[in-house]
Design a protein that fits this description.
The complex is a heterodimer of chains A (167) and B (498). Chain A is built from four helices and seven strands. Chain A is an alpha+beta fold and 167 residues long. In chain B, helix 2 packs across helix 3, helix 7 packs across helix 10 and helix 8 packs across helix 10.
Chain lengths: 167, 498
């Protein structure tokens, strides 16, 4: 959302998150595409369908896989461009979303506990996901992935420190 | 360390009864019907060790009322010691079925705040022990003066049977009764081992009967359907009345300092104790029938709690979002005063309502039009040209509905919290104090963006998804930014105490 709030006090995600996301997407794509390719191949070779149906099947596979690959390539960059966060004395605000945009604000006084999570690929890129737990229901856990690990840790420490109230 | 207390001496009986409940039907069947199937025999056998373990578990159950926490010790092989800080305890509720009432004991449910923590269910304690527990937990009192508790400290609301009947007419619990009856009927036929269950035999003869019926003159068919329809509605409402008369019989709401106590029930008597600081949201509802009676229903939401009392001991059911009655039926003009009495800072008389975006009705209208066209297409295929006759009135209805809905939807930012009202047919008002807001979100769908609008979501504390958020749609974008900023400022400035 472009408006006055979008000043340069808000930070972006780590640029490496784009590469990491593309890589993850690619791995998933391969894991799904290969078996389906085998399926399509077997169908083309051995099934009693007529030629047009087989061609249609192959075209469908190519189309879907291509579409997935293209979105998997462009979406992480879009996400990087449209996600911003800001940590200040009052709390954490996260702005994200490409089509469906949202701004979520968590006051510091409402943070119950926080996690910094790293999947195996994230570890390679020194990235992490920050998860903030509140007592809410819809937003019981607010997570922000694509942060640099060394950035996420101080944010986590800041958000949970000094919470003497609201046991 | 304060003294360890045990359960009431007769707890073993209730524990065994609870375990046996699941096996009651097979046991009865096995005992009284000939040729029982094998599974019933096994069920009858299995119940013995289960009941026995329930009994032993209760013999070893202990609890202590420490200075700041309730300590419960439980378990036969695995001994568990659970510490529940008083600050965490949201409610302590009592449930008494007729047998409990006979010997003045009650099932106690200790509900905690966090969604992850299970509640503690204590089966059973004497009423004195419960009063002592409540005094300890909510008022930090260590001694009980019998005079304290019996002091009628402010009856806020008392519902005579007449009001409960109105509630029954207004609500739709008739189907619950019907469902239970059908279920019981099904079971009964299993017991008696009929070849043909009653329902089966009715269904069997239904086709011929229906044919005979449909061949009668059209007017007769239409009239009889109408009569049957009306009878069904009346009957359902009567069931609903009966249901509420039984469930909420003698509903009394009392206030003792910071505690609300609601007592109700004919057979199962329930006593809920809710500390007012634990109230997260207040919700008032008004359906057209409510309006006819000049009444509203007020509920409150706290965190945690709820669930069925099916569990024995500490492994209580996971708490669910619980909506509890504050005032099931109350005259509309009494509502502001009632709310202020319960939560002194809440003042809803003379609220200044802010409307949604001026063109918000158009978006609702567009959605209505989409629905109308979605229905028209298959309708035209089925009924031909006549389906078109439905388009005009449907469009008019969509227009009226969208204008009325937007007219009756609004929000108000008060010095103490936010209030959101919505709906023109069924009217709802949600009230949240700033201190209870957890997170504030602003959302913009692509459609919002096209219209320069945005929506706001206000999240409150709860144990389960659903019903704990206030969603304000179709706001002008600048207003949305402004309002969410204000909400955020107000709520972050206030500490959150469960």
């Amino acid at each position: 959302m472009e408006h006055a709030q979008d000043d340069d006090r808000s930070s972006r995600l780590d640029p490496r998150s784009v590469v990491a996301a593309r890589l993850t997407g690619g791995i998933v794509l391969v894991c799904v595409a290969l078996p389906t390719l085998v399926g399509v191949g077997m169908t083309s070779l051995f099934s009693p369908w007529n030629t047009w149906q087989k061609i249609g099947l192959v075209v469908a596979w190519v189309g879907l896989t291509g579409l997935w690959a293209v979105t998997g390539y462009f979406v992480p960059a879009l996400r990087y461009r449209t996600t911003r966060y800001r940590v200040d004395a009052s709390g954490l605000t996260i702005r994200r979303g490409i089509l469906w945009r949202s701004v979520t604000s968590v006051p510091k006084s409402r943070v119950q506990h926080t996690d910094v999570v790293q999947g195996p690929l994230q570890r390679q890129f020194e990235l992490a996901t920050l998860v903030i737990h509140t007592a809410g229901t819809q937003d019981a856990s607010v997570s922000l992935s694509g942060l640099a690990h060394h950035t996420a840790l101080p944010i986590r420490d800041f958000l949970i420190d000094g919470r003497g109230d609201g046991v | 360390m304060s003294e360890e207390k045990r359960l009431h001496p007769l707890s073993w009986f209730f524990a065994a009864a609870q375990a046996a409940k699941g096996f009651l039907v097979p046991i009865l069947f096995f005992l009284f019907a000939s040729g029982g199937e094998a599974y019933e025999l096994w069920a009858a056998v299995f119940i013995i060790p289960i009941a026995l373990s329930a009994v032993i578990r209760y013999v070893v159950f202990r609890y202590r009322l420490e200075k700041d926490e309730l300590v419960v010790r439980d378990g036969i092989l695995t001994r568990t010691e659970r510490h529940i800080p008083y600050a965490r305890i949201q409610n302590i509720d009592l449930i008494q079925n007729p047998l409990h009432r006979l010997i003045n004991v009650a099932l106690v449910r200790v509900e905690t705040a966090s969604g992850q923590k299970p509640e503690a269910i204590i089966r059973v304690l004497s009423l004195d022990a419960v009063a002592e527990m409540r005094a300890h937990v909510f008022e930090g009192r260590t001694t009980i003066d019998p005079a304290d508790d019996s002091r009628a400290s402010g009856v806020i609301l008392q519902l005579p049977a007449r009001e409960l009947a109105k509630l029954g007419i207004v609500s739709n619990k008739g189907l619950v009764v019907v469902g239970a009856a059908v279920g019981a009927l099904w079971q009964r036929n299993r017991w008696w081992g009929d070849e043909d269950t009653i329902v089966d035999s009715y269904l069997g003869s239904a086709p011929q009967w229906l044919e005979g019926f449909a061949s009668r003159p059209a007017l007769f068919v239409a009239l009889s359907l109408l009569v049957v329809g009306i009878l069904a509605v009346v009957l359902l409402r009567l069931f609903s009345v009966a249901w509420f008369l039984v469930q909420l019989y003698g509903f009394t709401l009392r206030q003792q300092k910071e505690n609300l106590r609601a007592e109700y029930g004919l057979f199962n008597k329930i006593s809920r104790n809710i500390p007012t600081p634990r109230i997260q949201t207040l919700i008032t509802t008004e359906s057209p029938l409510h309006r006819w009676f000049g009444r509203q229903s007020v509920e409150l939401r706290t965190v945690g709690g709820g669930g069925d009392d099916l569990d024995i001991g500490l492994e209580g059911a996971a708490p669910k979002a619980k909506s509890q009655w504050l005032a099931p039926m109350v005259p509309t003009q009494r509502v502001p005063e009632l709310l202020t009495r319960v939560l002194p800072e809440v003042e809803i008389g003379g609220l200044a309502w802010e409307p949604l975006a001026p063109l918000a009705w158009r978006r609702l209208f567009k959605r209505g039009l989409i629905i109308v066209s979605l229905i028209t297409v298959p309708a035209t295929l089925l009924f031909g040209v006549w389906a078109v006759a439905f388009v005009l009135p449907a469009t008019a209805a969509a227009y009226v509905h969208s204008r009325l809905t937007i007219k009756h939807t609004g929000y108000s930012l008060t010095p103490w919290g936010v209030v959101f009202k919505s709906g023109w047919w069924d009217r709802t008002m949600k009230i949240v104090r700033y201190a209870k807001i957890q997170t504030v979100s602003q959302g913009e769908s692509p459609f919002d963006r096209r219209n320069g609008m945005a929506s706001i979501r206000i999240d409150t504390a709860g144990a389960e998804k659903g019903g704990h958020t206030i969603d304000i749609p179709y706001l002008e974008r600048d207003t949305a930014i402004d309002v969410s900023r204000r909400l955020y400022a107000e709520c972050s400035g206030r500490a959150f105490r469960w």
